[in-house]
Specification:
The chain has one helix at about 1-20; strands at about 25, 30-35, 40, 45, 55-60, 60-65, 70, 75-80, 85-90, 100-105, 110-125, 130-135, 140-150, 155-160, 170, 175, 185-195, 200-220, 220-230. With about 240 residues, it is mainly beta. The protein is rod-shaped and about 115 Å long. The chain is built from 1 helix and 19 strands. It is found in: Cell membrane. This is Ig-like domain-containing protein. InterPro entries: Ig-like_dom, Ig-like_dom_sf, Ig-like_fold, Ig_I-set, Ig_sub, Ig_sub2, Ig_V-set. Keywords: Cell membrane, Disulfide bond, Glycoprotein, Immunoglobulin domain, Membrane, Repeat, Signal.
């Protein structure tokens, strides 16, 4: 009798084991990596059977079916160790940010990992004119276009060590100086930072042109007035 009970238990366990379904035990996650780094996206499967197919996709684009490759990007690799099918992306590029899906057949099941890529900042100043020539009293508008992830913080400074003009305002990367004077001439620098890699910089030189008037006197009377246009902050010396 004891033999029959033991045999029944063994057969029951054997049936349960053979009927166990493949299951993805890895939970979907959010991965944040810096541009240029490597990342590993895990997919651990329990009770994997011979007829179970493991598929890695980027969105709807199939990357791997089991260990068969369906893409040409050599940075993407599938590394299998036992029942863990890990998607490896080397030297991550900004455009690699996406949803990556690991799915199995028999039964159908999937998880999704979201990859976000931190991108170092880049800057570009417009207008392209350098130096930028302005006339006294005009308004200067300079745009510093930035890119990067997370969105970079933009700051404006003067390279000559002088303070920014009191009439200067900046918003969304745009520097505006109203009613410029010749003292506003100088090199202005845009800096973008987001704690990814090194800060990005770009500069533009602003030259403010003004008019100087010279009067010639004879016997205490003005006999001639000469107007001189210059981009310098003071008139030339007259000998």
């Amino acid at each position: 009798m004891a033999y029959n009970v033991t045999g029944l238990i063994f057969l029951t366990l054997l049936v349960l084991f053979s009927c166990a379904q493949a299951t993805i035990i890895t939970k979907g996650g959010r991965f944040i990596v810096d541009e240029g780094d490597n990342v590993e996206l895990p997919c651990n499967i329990r009770n994997i059977a011979e007829d179970t197919v493991v598929i890695w996709k980027r969105g709807e684009l199939v990357l791997f079916t089991d260990e068969e490759v369906f893409h040409e990007d050599q940075r993407f690799q599938l590394r299998r160790k036992d029942n863990n099918f890990t998607l490896v992306i080397e030297r991550v590029e900004p455009y690699d940010g996406a949803k990556y899906i690991c799915e199995i057949t028999s039964p159908e099941m999937s998880i999704a990992h979201v990859l976000e890529v931190n991108v170092r900042p880049m800057v570009s100043i417009s207008p392209d004119a350098n130096p930028l020539l302005m006339n006294v009293g005009e308004n200067v508008v300079i745009k510093c276009s930035v890119s990067g992830n997370p969105p970079p913080k933009v700051t404006w400074t003067r390279q000559d060590g002088q303070k920014m003009p009191t009439r200067a305002t900046s918003k969304d990367g745009q520097l505006r100086i109203t009613r410029v004077t010749m003292n506003d001439s100088g090199i202005y620098e845009c800096t973008a930072s987001n704690n990814v890699g090194i800060d990005a910089h770009d500069t533009i030189e602003v030259l403010v042109q003004g008019n100087f008037s010279f009067f010639l006197f004879q016997n205490y009377q003005v006999i001639m007035c000469i107007t001189y246009s210059s981009k310098f902050s003071k008139p030339p010396d007259i000998i």
